[in-house]
Amino acid sequence: MKRIKIILGIIIAFAVIFLSTGLIFKETAYTTQVEVHKPLDEVFSVFNDSSKINNWIPELKSIEPIDVKPEKTGSTYKMVVSDPKGQEITLREKIMAFVPNEKVTLFFNTDVMFKKDDYTFNFNNGVTTITNNSICRGNSYLFSCVLPYFKSKIKEQDQEHLNNFKSFIEKN
């Protein structure tokens, strides 16, 4: 009986710690960055060309415009990506800010989370630096509890996409 109480106590402690994660961490934030040896205008143009995006985001299966605005800000797209198991995930992308050769802010909404990517572009000494400040929030309380434990994996994937972009544009 004593062992059962100890085991139950440990399980309850882990459950309390896990469930309190969602109360403590409302959102998960991180920064990724890459330096590209190309001119700023070329980098910005290629980065925002939706017909080329699958060259650095291999998980992207399709991107369809829903509402395209001439100034880009406010435009929305339906994107379909595949997860590592090959299952398709549909998400909605909205361009929140678009300042040519300076900044692009994207907002993604899926069934399980919201994600905001704030890309800034800087040019110095022949190198364009792309910096992405990301914020993720769970759509549900339980996913909010899980999200902080996967921060490194999400950040790693975003960094891989930026590295893929660098490789793609520097080859061409």
Automatic annotation (TrEMBL):
Domain of life according to the entry: Bacteria
Record-linked InterPro entries: ASHA1/2-like_C, START-like_dom_sf
Transmembrane region(s): 7-25
Domain Activator of Hsp90 ATPase homologue 1/2-like C-terminal: 39-111
Keywords from the UniProt entry: Membrane, Transmembrane, Transmembrane helix
Family stated for the protein in its record: Belongs to the AHA1 family.
Protein name, entry field: Polyketide cyclase/dehydrase/lipid transport protein
Organism, as annotated: Tenacibaculum platacis
